[in-house]
Design a protein that fits this description.
- The complex is a heterodimer of chains A (123) and B (652).
- Chain A has 123 residues and is α/β, with parallel strands linked by helices.
- Chain A contains 5 helices and 5 strands.
- Chain A has a 5-stranded parallel sheet, with helices on both faces.
- In chain A, α2 runs parallel beside α3.
- The radius of gyration of chain A is 13 Å and the shape is globular.
- Chain B is an alpha+beta fold.
- Chain B is built from 16 helices and 24 strands.
- A 6-stranded antiparallel barrel of chain B has the order 19-20-21-24-23-22. A 5-stranded antiparallel sheet of chain B has the order 2-1-5-4-3, sandwiched between helices.
- In chain B, α9 packs antiparallel against α10 and α14 packs across α15.
- The longest helix of chain B has 56 residues.
- Chain B is elongated.
- Classes of the chains: A alpha/beta (123), B alpha+beta (652).
- Chains A and B meet through α1 and α4 of A and α6 of B.
């Protein structure tokens, strides 16, 4: 079976480093982007199996990226996991309305992220 | 014109003296009745006429003043100043109006006066003296001073509030900013810990385990800070759901038992057999509970015992966390639930956290409509309790609704009553963009349709529907209906409401439907008073029957306290199950006391044993030496005879 490809859009380089290592150790291929616009471009070009999207991103925020992808029939099926430092209801609500498939509040347990990813990829 | 003047001058003798005397009387009455000092001075500053107020102010009689000058009564300095003003008016012909000066009265009291001096002219228009009025304005000045002070304080308060707001925002920003690096640290540590980056030895694992523990600690502190800043900025929202308390405690037990075990502490949970479902924000209530248990473990030595208990009270559920740990000093108890409070008797090294846990717990419990309190003794241990509301729909009954129900009952008509309450209305209103007006219009319609479907035309008396858009309530009164009918209405209403909310995609709404049956008070034919047996059913919370109705009620109560002390006070409300009263003493939860209750209507006194079920501290007013507590008692072993007397006393 081919390795599943995950696009990680996150502006904190150290976070990208840590999550990439974890995902790779669990048999995923990781693509990364450091701002919203780059993330959107990579998502469209590479069509990954799943996208991990940070909320607060330079150039274009996570909501916008999520909304644009979910509104486009070509990408609407790609599951999106949202990262947020805020566990606020309003954020989660807005993300869900835009079609995010899962939410993970920072700081998080690596196991939680991995099980969410597994769950979404199996769907 | 000229002729007229001539007539007057020609006939001076024809002056009507009676009229003159009358006018003089009017003038002198005016002068003497006015509390202001009034005087006439000639050009040399001699007083030619003064009123009574003037003389009184100097402690003299008017006659003793006439012909003298200010120099005869006042200090040289003061008199010179007065003379200067006099000269100004006399020379320039310009009046001095409302000149405010500080003065010392004859009796030595400092006051403020307003002085007005107006020149007086003779027929030819030459200044011949002046008229002066001096008014004591000490009071006015005092009021003005207070007003100024008030404005100043208000301004300062505003600035402080602004500062406080900035502080809350700052805390919020900082906590958010701290979270990002913290979560990166966590990921990096976990990479090594999980051996993603390669194998590690036991010592390295132990080291990282400790690092992890401290990351969790830091995370908890940041979360507390965020909670506080949200509470302070009123951004704190509860997310209600129907929760089984027993399950909540079982989860808590699973988590904490291991933690306690590691420290060599025995932690036991005592749960009621009955399943209790309550409306609550389960995350938040769990947070309160966890905070209390965590504290108990923290302050209990190895080999100690901790007890977590749940007690079903009349209209509340009480949860207690009881430890035999180090306890809390009496002086620390009042500030325990304050923000940033740290208990002084604990060595600094053992204090953990920023002291926000209990203040957050208090806020959370109070937002749920409950109370939180503590009883503790240094070296003996602490008992923390908090309560959550049962029978939500009854606790929010408005007075005017009660009055309407009473009206029917007084006429000998039984009443069924449904109280529909949107429990999470405040949160709901903000989150879901629903227009309360249209929502309640729809609600009313649904109630109407439901009613028609069930009742058709069996009920002659019209139903009464009252909506409270502000608080998310809808009250439906069915006079003459049967309990069965009301329950049917409530059940159908529940289904219809559910469908309505699903259809309109309105989520996260929690409604409590209370069905209250009020039987007839008086037998319609014999006019005999029937025993009151109110039953309450709350849909969504489960078909639990509330045992008793609490009634606001003032009666004298003598509380026989331990150590042979007594306290006489008044009850706040009363039911067949217990009473509530205000006490100057903090009573121990679950302690047993005896009370003497004077029932004013029956004119009887009953002696009852009771147990302290809950206690709430009522804020101490400035200058008040003692705290006051609202105490809930539950009767134990109420005799049948006394029960009858009590239920007779209690009408709706």
């Amino acid at each position: 079976m081919d390795k599943k490809r995950i696009l990680l859009v996150e502006d904190e380089k150290d976070m990208v480093y840590a999550v990439t290592l974890q995902l790779e150790a669990n048999g995923y291929e990781v693509l990364s982007a450091y701002d919203g616009r780059e993330g959107l471009g990579k998502a469209k070009k590479e069509k990954p199996d799943l996208i991990i999207l940070d909320l607060m991103l330079p150039k274009m925020d996570g909501y916008k990226v999520c909304g644009l992808l979910k509104a486009d029939t070509r990408y609407t099926k790609i599951p999106i996991v949202m990262f947020t430092a805020r566990a606020q209801e309003s954020d989660i609500k807005l993300g869900e309305e835009l079609g995010a498939d899962a939410y993970i509040t920072k700081p998080f347990e690596p196991q939680v992220l991995l099980s969410k990813i597994r769950e979404l990829l199996e769907k | 014109m000229k002729g007229k003047t001539k007539i007057k001058q020609d006939k001076p003798k024809q002056i009507n003296y009676k009229d003159l005397v009358y006018k003089y009387k009017l003038l002198s009455d005016l002068m003497d009745c006015v509390p202001d000092v009034i005087y006439f001075k000639d050009k040399k500053g001699r007083l030619i006429m003064v009123n009574k107020a003037h003389a009184k102010g100097l402690g003299l009689k008017p006659g003793e003043i006439v012909g003298k000058t200010d120099f005869d009564f006042f200090s040289k300095k003061r008199a010179e100043m007065m003379a200067k003003d006099d000269m100004y008016v006399l020379k320039t012909g310009k009046p001095i109006i409302d000149k405010i000066e500080r003065a010392t009265r004859a009796d030595g009291v400092d006051n403020y006066v307003s002085t007005t001096k107006i020149p007086r002219y003779d027929d030819k228009g030459k200044i011949i003296g002046l008229i002066g009025i001096t008014r004591d304005i000490t009071r006015r000045m005092h009021l003005e001073r207070i007003k100024e002070e008030k404005v100043r304080i208000e301004k300062r308060l505003e600035a402080l509030e602004e500062l406080n707001k900035l502080k809350s925002e700052f805390i919020s920003t900082v906590s958010h900013e701290l979270r990002t690096p913290l979560s990166i640290i966590k990921q990096l540590v976990m990479l090594v810990f999980n051996e993603t980056t390669g194998p590690i030895n036991e010592e390295q694992r132990e080291t990282l385990k400790r690092a992890r523990g401290n990351i969790e600690r830091l995370k908890n502190i940041i979360d507390e800070l965020l909670d506080i800043s949200r509470i302070e900025r009123d951004r704190f929202r509860l997310h209600y759901s129907l929760v089984n308390i027993n399950e909540l405690l079982r989860d808590s037990s699973d988590f904490f038992k291991k933690l306690a075990q590691d420290k060599g502490i025995s932690l036991n949970y005592y749960l009621p057999k009955k399943q209790i479902n309550l409306f609550m924000d389960v995350e938040r209530v769990n947070q309160v509970l966890s905070n209390l248990i965590d504290n108990a473990i923290k302050f209990t030595e190895q080999g100690g015992k901790i007890k977590v208990e749940v007690k079903l009270l009349e209209a509340k559920v009480r949860i207690g966390v009881i430890d035999a740990g180090i306890g809390i000093a009496k002086s620390d108890l009042p500030k325990l639930f304050n923000k940033f409070a740290q208990v002084s008797k604990i060595p600094r090294v053992e204090r953990k956290g920023v002291g926000l846990g209990l203040s957050i717990a208090k806020e959370l419990v109070e937002r749920h409509g409950g109370e939180i309190w503590v009883e503790s003794k240094l070296g003996v241990g602490s008992k923390f309790y908090f309560t959550l509301l049962r029978f939500y729909t009854v606790s929010v009954l408005d007075k005017h609704i009660k009055d309407r129900i009473n009206n029917f009952l007084d006429k000998g008509i039984s009443v069924q009553f449904i109280n529909l309450v949107i429990v999470n209305y405040r949160e709901f209103k903000e989150r879901v963009n629903v227009k309360p007006r249209s929502l309640f219009k729809d609600l009313k319609e649904i109630v109407d349709i439901t009613f028609k479907e069930i009742c058709r035309s069996d009920i002659e008396e019209p139903r009464i529907i009252q909506t409270d858009i502000l608080n998310g309530k809808c009250s439906i009164i069915f006079p003459k209906a049967t309990k069965k009918k009301a329950t049917e209405v409530a059940k159908l209403l529940k289904d219809k409401l559910k469908r309505y909310f699903i259809k309109n995609k309105i989520e996260d709404v929690f409604i409590a439907l209370g069905v209250l049956s009020y039987p007839k008070k008086v037998h319609p034919y014999t006019a005999k008073r029937l025993p009151v047996s109110l039953s309450i059913k709350e849909i969504y919370i489960g078909p639990e029957m509330r045992r008793f109705e609490r009634i606001p009620y003032k009666a004298n109560i003598k509380v026989l306290l331990p150590e042979n002390k007594t306290e006489v006070t008044q009850t706040v409300n009363i039911s067949e199950g217990g009473i509530c009263f205000v006490s100057k003493r903090s009573l121990a939860t679950d302690s047993q006391i005896k009370i003497e209750l004077e029932l004013p209507k029956n004119k009887k006194t009953i002696h009852v044993k009771a147990r302290v079920a809950w206690i709430k501290e009522i804020g101490r007013l400035p200058g008040q030496a003692v705290n006051k507590y609202k105490v809930g008692l539950e009767f134990i072993g109420l005799k049948d005879k006394d029960r009858k007397i009590l239920s007779k006393e209690l009408k709706l």
